[in-house]
Design brief:
There is one protein chain. By secondary structure, the protein is α/β, with parallel strands linked by helices. Among the domains are: 31 residues, no CATH class; 173 residues, no CATH class. Helices cover 28% and strands 16% of the residues. It has a six-stranded mixed sheet with strand order 2-1-5-6-7-8. It has a two-stranded antiparallel ribbon with strand order 3-4. The radius of gyration is 27 Å and the shape is elongated. The N and C termini lie far apart (95 Å).
């Protein structure tokens, strides 16, 4: 009877062992260096056996060969899910830091006037004793739009793009990915959604962004970095739809996002070596004094490049 049970347990053990070997070639290579017992062990307890585990001492996901997913910026959002993997940011913003376009220290998500520097007690808007609150009607906003379009009708957006893009330097940047965050506001109503205070400011930001990011200028940006894969992103869905309608630029959809490349080369789109991304935020604002304020945020290097221009016919004069 004992002999029967002995053979029975040996049979069960052999069956279980054979079922665990899902990659015979890897198992064979493992046995050349380690014992069968070690090859079938799971020291880190992640469910990935030693002969398949690329990180046998660190628990990780099976789809990552038993290795933990990296989190370069240490923000708790793993790089494969992190839009800004090299700069720490909250999970609710997909791993990117919250922007602060007007630089007043109040994040845009909490700023009632994200394009105008303000104070915390006014929710990011200037003090009321400096600017008097006004409720704008649709007719007033239409007038602002018409004046803006008339004032900027002679702007050469192609030359403006050449000047702005010349300020971007990618020396030493090895990643094949670039995230381009296009500054734009989905709420045309101004500071908040009630058309109060500085709604013309937000309206002008949207108009400037729409006029600047035409198909030719976006193609220039993509062509400036022919070896890079460009992912444009905007909080304004209308801008995203506009970009996706462009036909002159090679594009590829992946995981619900659209990527662009000058040479139609998307081989390294899902390569882990492409992390971290380079993140650009280009902000253009036409001021009342006929000056053009430009800001380029380069999140991966935590750099900000500010400069002012003045349009003279078809040329631009840099003021600082």
């Amino acid at each position: 009877m004992k002999l029967y049970y002995t053979f029975f347990f040996i049979f069960v053990f052999l069956c279980c062992s054979s079922q665990e070997i899902i990659d015979k070639e890897s198992f064979k290579k493992c046995k050349k260096e380690f014992s069968k017992k070690i090859c079938l062990s799971d020291e880190d307890g992640d469910g990935v056996l030693f002969y398949l585990d690329h990180c046998p001492k660190d628990a990780g996901a099976a789809e990552n060969n038993g290795c933990p997913w990296p989190d370069i910026d240490g923000d708790g959002v793993i790089d494969k899910d992190d839009i800004c993997p090299s700069v720490a940011g909250p999970q609710e913003n997909r791993g990117c830091p919250w922007s602060d376009i007007d630089g007043d220290g109040i994040l845009d998500k909490d700023d009632a006037c994200p394009t105008v520097p303000g104070v915390p007690e006014e929710d990011g808007c200037p003090k009321k004793n400096i600017y008097q609150s006004h409720r704008y009607s649709q007719e007033e906003l239409d007038e602002v739009k018409n004046k803006f379009l008339d004032k900027t009708k002679n702007i050469n957006y192609g030359k403006l793009a050449d000047l702005i893009f010349s300020k971007i330097d990618l020396k030493g940047y090895k990643s094949k990915m670039i995230t381009l965050e296009i500054a734009s506001f989905s709420q045309m109503g101004g500071c908040g959604q009630d058309r109060t205070d500085y709604s013309p400011t937000n309206l002008r930001v949207n108009l400037a962004s729409e006029l600047f990011w035409n198909e030719n200028n976006f193609k220039k940006f993509v062509n400036k970095f022919p070896s890079k894969i460009v992912f444009p992103y905007s909080e304004n869905e209308d801008v995203n739809k506009k970009l996706q309608a462009f036909k002159k630029i090679y594009s590829k959809k992946s995981n619900g996002m659209t990527f662009y490349n000058a040479k139609n080369n998307f081989k390294e789109l899902n390569s882990k070596e492409n992390s971290p991304y380079r993140n650009f935020h280009i902000y253009i604002f036409f001021e009342e004094n006929d000056e053009i304020f430009i800001k380029i945020n380069e999140y991966s290097h935590l750099e900000r490049n500010y400069f002012r221009l003045q349009a003279k016919g078809n040329t631009f004069i840099q003021l600082n």
